[in-house]
Structure formats: structure tokens, C-alpha cells
Amino acid sequence: MGTSDIVLVAGATGGVGRRVVDILRKKGIPVRVLVRNEEKARRMLGSDVDLVIGDITKDSTLIPEYFKGVKKVINAASVIVGPKEGDTPDRAKYSQGIKFFEPEIKGDSPEKVEYIGMRNLIKAVKDNLGLRREKLLFGFEGNNYRQLPWGALDDVVMGGVSESTFQIDPSGGENGGPTGIFKGVVSTANNGGFTSIRTKNFSEPENLSAYDGLEFRLKGDGRRYKIIVRTSSDWDALGYTAGFDTEKGKWQSIRVPFSSLRPVFRARTVSDAPPFDPSIVVSLQLMFSKFEYDGKLNETFVEGPFELPVSSIHAYIIKDPITPRFVHVSSAGVTRPERPGLDLSKQPPAVRLNKELDYILTFKLKGEDLLRESGIPYVIVRPCALTEEPAGADLIFDQGDNITVL
User: Within 10 Å of residue 376's Cβ, how many Cβ atoms?
Assistant: First the structure.
């Protein structure tokens, strides 16, 4: 994780959440907390904590600006359970873990917090965290197809005579499947010398901040091409540009790291341009040109017809293995209410009282499933009952949902 990457902690004023925040800050890891009550959070976590106010149960409060720079999430938010007879302000009865008090749900329901809240939080952070797999921007991937509105942008805009187009060939792909083809005829007549295809501006900017670059699956022709990525919706704005070489007659994967993109306007480097911001990608452009940058020429340039099959464009993640980007604190017992033949007398209170507690474990499991299905690299932690005691005791770990502490 880069030094500027932020860990978002939801549920930061709870017993687990505030400890997580404290540990992260002591390690020098940038932390941002998502809380409902600013005064309470400042009192617990300190006046200098990076804090945003929102409620995961209310989608409208999770403003996109809150999550800028966030690369990982720890979700310790949970429905509140407490004794029916009431508790002390510091929840001493609930946390002592020895005497049993008849419990009830306090505040929002399990469905609202554990399921709807998880859905809202995933939606808010998903673009920042990235997917386990690469993100398809254009092309064919199994049964998936994503089209982009490509259009020609050739040197005719400067008086030249070159021309190009982008077509879909239903059988020209790597294994006889479909592919896109960037093709045309390039000429230096009338001071020309380039062809390109450019997408229309996306209806919504693509947030690729969780990724490391673009990967093209294409069949090379031995020429050098350019990719131009724009972060401005203005038509005649500068583009962040990189060149890439291809091998003739070979299907290959070409990776263009975002770090290799340079700000260019009309083939000239713009030295005072802002750094490339992958969170606001608004259009893509492929170009074949006799010009490189700053007066240099493309050594592979040849006038005449050309053809570049492109079957897909992905945003890729370079880190391998991909570590979890969303840590969710759930609960032991979430799978047990649905187990046939379960002896409830041997189960902890949350399992025995699942129905009475508005199906708390059922909705916790539904929330887990949302995370599993999201495509975000994740880990789910299912602690047994947590009590307020000094740290340092031995911990028991297992996979699945089998540990029981009565």
C-alpha cells in the first residue's frame, strides 16, 4: 500500500472500530473514519482524526468526495444489541461477558445495518478498491461484451487526407471469435501523417484509481501506436499519452502503466500539467502517427494501409498476489440458523435468539454474501463474543463457522 493510500474505518466509535483506528494510527497508516456522530467521534478518537459524517444505512449520506484516496476499508459497523433492562453509558453490562442479560435490538434493524448498510458501503467504495479480476473497458471476454462509441479523428482536421475507422469483425479474433479492428490508410500528403479513433466522452467518468494501468489484447503489425487518455470532457484538451510497440502477426497483451502516461497537447509535452488522475477518465483514443513527441518521429511509421485488431481493453492490477482490500467484521454463528438438526441448547445466545433479534445472523450472512459477490478482494472475520478485558490472551483461529464459546 502506498504511503498516500487511506484506510477507511466504518463503525469507528464501536469497541472494535476504535481499537482498529488506534492501531492503524500508531503504525503511521493514514486513516479516515466514517461516523454518524462527529462530537462522539472527536471525543473518542481525538480532535485531529480525519473524519467524515455519514450513515451506511442512508445511501444519500455517502458522498463520493468522502472516499477520495481510500484504497482499503475495514468495516466494523454493526447493529447495536443491548440488555432489555438498559445499560450503562459505556455498555458495561453488554461487554462484561459473564452474566447473561436478555438482549434486544437497539436502534436500526439488522436488515437495515447488516444488509442495506453493507450494500450502500460497497457501492460507495467499490470503484476505489478495485476488483479481484481486471476491469473490462472495451471488448469481448467470455460471454461479456462492452462496446465503446469509437469515431475517427484523422489528420483531415489539419488538411491531411488520411482516413481510418473502427469496425467489429465477428470472426477475426484470436480463436475465431469477435474482435474490434482499428484500420485505415495513412498518408503524409498535405502535411498530414496520422490517423486515430477516439471514444465519445463517457456518460460518467471511469474511476480507475484502484488500478495500475491499461492492458490491450491485440494482434500486432510491427508498428508503434499511441494510447491517449483524457481526464477532461473538453474536446480540445491535453491528453495523457504513451506509445507502445507491437509484434507483427502475433496476438499479444500490451500493458501501459498509468505511471508511463505523459501530458501531451498536439504532440508537445506540457511540463506544467497536473499529474494524471485515474479517478476521472472520460475518453480513450488510439493513434497511429508519424510523430512521437516534441519533434521526434515514429521510426516504425510507414505510409499506406494498416490494420490493428483489438479484442479487449482492461484496467489491470499489477499487485500479485492481490491482498484483501475490504476487511469485514461479521460474527460467529451466521451460518448456523439454517443448519438442519442443530441443537440450539449448545449454541450461543445470538444463534438461539436469531428470530427474536430480528434475524440478526441471517442478515449478517446476507451482508457477507454481498461482499463475496462484489468482486472486491476481501476477508471476513467472524469473532465470537467480545468482552472488555486486558489484551494478551491466546487466540483460537479456524476457517468456516465452527467455533463456539458459551
Answer: 21
- Give phi and psi for 217, each to the nearest 5: -105, 115
Positive or negative torsion for Cα 295, 298, 303, 307 = negative
Number of CB atoms found within 10 A of residue 197's CB: 24
Residues 269, 341 within the same domain: no
Q: C-alpha angle with apex 225: 223 to 231, nearest 5 degrees? A: 175
Inter-residue contact 39 to 72 (CB < 8 Å): no
pLDDT per residue as tens digits for the range 159-193 = 899 999 999 999 998 888 899 999 999 999 998 99
Contact call for residues 360 and 354 (beta carbons, < 8 A): yes
Q: How many helices (H) and strands (E) does the chain have?
A: 7, 22
Q: How many CB atoms lie within 10 A of CB 77?
A: 27
What are the pLDDT digits (tens) for 282-341?
999 999 999 999 989 999 999 999 999 999 999 998 665 678 999 999 998 898 888 888
User: Cell digits for 90?
Assistant: 459505556
Q: What's the half-sphere exposure (Cβ side, CA atoms, 13 Å) at 125?
A: 31
CA distance 229 to 211: 14
Question: 3-class SS at 360?
Answer: helix
- Alpha-carbon gap, residue 78 to 81, rounded angstroms: 9
Are 126 and 139 found together in one domain?
Answer: no
Shared domain for 359 and 295, answered yes or no, is no
pTM, two decimal places: 0.69
Question: Residue 160 is part of a domain; what is its CATH number?
Answer: 2.60.120.430
Given 273, 292, 316, the domain boundary residue is 316
HEC profile for 14-62?
Answer: CHHHHHHHHHHHHCCCCEEEEECCHHHHHHHHCCCCEEEECCCCCHHHC
Written as nine digits, the cell of 232 is 477532461
Paired with 305 in beta bridges are: 185
What is the number of domains present in the chain? 2
Longest C-alpha distance within the chain, in Å?
A: 89
Residues 260 and 213 in one domain: yes
- Provide the residue range defining the domain that includes 154: 135-316
The rounded distance, in Å, linking the Cα atoms of 231 and 262 is 13
C-alpha cell at 174: 484470436
How is residue 119 written as a grid cell? Answer: 450494500
Do 229 and 214 meet the contact criterion of CB atoms below 8 Å apart? yes
Grid cell listed for 38: 462527529
